[in-house]
Design goal:
heterodimer; A: about 270 residues; mainly alpha; 12 helices; B: about 350 residues; alpha+beta; 6-stranded mixed β-sheet; 5-stranded antiparallel β-sheet; elongated
């Protein structure tokens, strides 16, 4: 038997050059953030009350939006993956609309439906006295609207990859559809749900356009980190850098932590 | 059978161009093997019995209860049928331990957690896997996974136990052990058992009765001795390793193609003649002497078959002959070579078609 000749892997320059530029393009802005950060005044700036408030609001609303997406999105993904119904392709297309829709347009659309004079909003206001725009709940709604497609697509993919015959095996053992879903299907696609939730959470954390349009920019109530960064940029660039750094650190840390724990094989 | 069978089914189903029409009756404690080539409808039949696909006509009665009866719009979903299934690749839930896999059925059928687990442990002990209860399916060997799957199906105490190619995924050595184990457990099962397989050995060892299907229909049915001695289709003949020909009989002579074979049995009308390849003797020249069936043939192929060589012959009838390597060397067998084939009447079997 002859051993295959050891050959140096040649990478064509036409691919190597743009690849390197692409990497630089992605990393350079982050490096710039680190270089320009006011490291000496960092502790003092971090202690400012507005910063922590915005950070907490961001984490809370992103988490709440993710929960909302999981509760509504997993059943939706199951429906798309497991049930044959007319118009399924149309429904799948509709689910992905927020993905391509500019977030600001999404915010306007939310305002038209859930606004005080909106289609549902006026009824909610009249019946329950609930108003959503320009409230923390509105932030959650805006974030969930933008982030849900990420979850639905990830979970539907996981469901399609999971062998439906496990569900048939569960049925022959006496499990109804609901029990099969909770005891067999969901555990089987748990990594997919976790991956989808992480993506969804990251998208919600960074949400800006729909949030500022639908919920406004009230410190402590609807001003999340991205909004605070944007606002600070107009008055105090140093503050904007600090806020950006915090957002970057927190999201990377949490994503890394979750990835190791839940999405280890992904 | 004097008592009514536990399972009484007439399975009619259409899957595209494929049409299944199968009558099946299995008594309590009886093990029936559904044997057939790939695409014969075995899996369709199993899925219909389990309730994973509905029948399009016919009926399915188990223990006196109609489970599927399209004409009366009766249909019981799989989760409410007293049916246990061992799937071909077992389908053990990968996120549950062996114990929880087996406890899954009893739990779903109303037992509380402790009772279900105790019952599951009992079943694992019975299949000899009490020690492996905590293991996940991926930590089990193929043979162990097969036994867990069997325990899981039996733990719901099914009236009808279905096994889909239960030994197909195992290597030869494990298969031998597991087959013996399986035979023991199937013997102890008080309900009806249907074993779906394309392996004749599984069917012969494990089943009391064979039902052979081809193209969605029963082509032959009976105990192992009858089916192996008197095959009625080429598929069955190949399974049991016999030359089979259909012809017209007139007493001790059966005319097949242009050849008349003398047989020991007496038959009249349409008939089958069967004889083992080992009964076919090959000669370089026309043999004379004892009254034999003799005809000229041409070698079309030679393959190894156990310790012997199996020679495929063309001629007035196509047959297979088994010869020893020494005889083959003496004859100098190679494709295209003319030989004389001879079969003693006493080694043939003739029976009405």
């Amino acid at each position: 038997m002859t051993r295959p000749a050891r050959r140096r892997q040649r990478v064509p320059l036409a691919l190597l050059l743009p690849a390197g530029l692409g990497l630089l393009f992605l990393v350079l802005p982050l490096a710039g953030l680190l270089v320009r950060a006011p490291w000496t005044t960092l502790p003092r700036r971090l202690a400012q009350p507005g910063v922590l408030t915005a950070l907490r609001l961001s984490l809370e609303t992103a988490t709440a939006a993710t929960l909302l997406c999981v509760v509504l999105g997993v059943p939706l993904a199951w429906l798309l993956a497991r049930v044959e119904f007319p118009g399924r392709r149309l429904v799948r297309a509709l689910v992905t609309v927020p993905l391509v829709l500019p977030p600001v347009v999404g915010g306007v659309a939310l305002l038209l439906v859930f606004g005080r004079r909106g289609l549902l909003g006026s009824w909610l206001d009249a019946t329950f006295g609930v108003t959503l725009p320009f409230t923390t709940a509105g932030v959650v709604l805006a974030e969930a609207f933008v982030a849900m497609p990420f979850l639905v697509i990830a979970v539907e993919g996981a469901l399609r990859g999971a062998d439906p015959r496990y569900e048939e095996a569960a049925a022959t053992l006496g499990a109804g559809r609901w029990t099969t879903f909770t005891r067999v299907t969901l555990p089987l696609v748990a990594p997919g749900v976790a991956a989808g939730a992480v993506l969804c959470w990251a998208r919600a954390l960074g949400e800006f356009g729909a949030t500022i349009t639908f919920a406004g920019n009230y410190p402590g109530r609807t001003q999340t980190m991205p909004l605070a960064v944007y606002l600070a940029l107009e008055t105090d660039v140093q503050a904007a850098i600090v806020l950006s750094l915090i957002l970057l650190t927190v999201s990377v840390a949490i994503l890394a932590g979750l990835r190791d724990r839940w999405v280890g094989t992904a | 059978m004097t008592t009514p069978p536990l399972l009484d089914a007439h399975l009619v189903a259409d899957r595209g161009a494929f049409h299944l029409d199968l009558r099946l009756r299995i008594g309590a404690g009886e093990v029936v093997a559904l044997l057939g080539p790939n695409g014969a409808g075995k899996t369709t039949a199993l899925r219909a019995l389990a309730g994973l696909d509905p029948l399009s006509a016919g009926h399915l009665t188990l223990g006196g209860a109609d489970l599927d009866r399209p004409d009366r719009r009766v249909w019981t979903p799989p989760e409410r049928r007293p049916v246990g299934v061992v799937f071909q690749d077992y389908l053990l839930f990968p996120h549950l331990s062996a114990l929880d896999n087996v406890a899954f059925g009893p739990r779903r059928r109303g037992a509380d957690r402790r009772t279900a687990r105790a019952r599951a442990q009992g079943w694992l002990d019975r299949v000899g896997l009490g020690e492996q209860a905590r293991r996940r399916p991926r930590q089990l060997s193929g043979g162990q996974a097969q036994r867990v799957a069997l325990a899981r199906a039996l733990a719901v105490e099914p009236t009808l136990l279905l096994l889909d190619e239960p030994l197909a995924a195992l290597d030869a050595r494990t298969r031998l052990d597991t087959r013996a184990e399986l035979q023991h457990h199937l013997g102890a099962h008080p309900g009806a058992t249907l074993l779906v397989t394309h392996d004749p050995l599984d069917a012969l060892v494990l089943a009391d009765r064979l039902v052979i299907v081809e193209q969605g229909r029963v082509v032959q049915e009976g105990d192992a001795a009858t089916v192996t001695a008197r095959p009625r289709t080429d598929y069955v003949a190949r399974l049991v390793g016999l030359n089979l020909h259909r012809g017209h009989a007139d007493g001790h002579a059966v005319t097949v193609g242009g050849l008349t074979l003398t047989t020991a049995d007496t038959v009249r009308g349409e008939a089958f003649v069967a004889f083992p390849p080992a009964a076919v003797a090959l000669h370089p020249n026309r043999p004379d002497g004892s009254p034999r069936n003799v005809w000229p043939a041409t070698v079309t192929g030679v393959q190894r078959h156990g310790d012997n060589l199996r020679v495929q012959l063309a001629g007035p009838v196509a047959v297979a002959a088994d010869v020893t390597p020494a005889a083959a060397a003496h004859l100098g067998l190679r494709p295209g070579q003319p030989v004389w084939a001879a079969v003693k009447a006493a080694e043939t079997r003739a029976y009405p078609a």
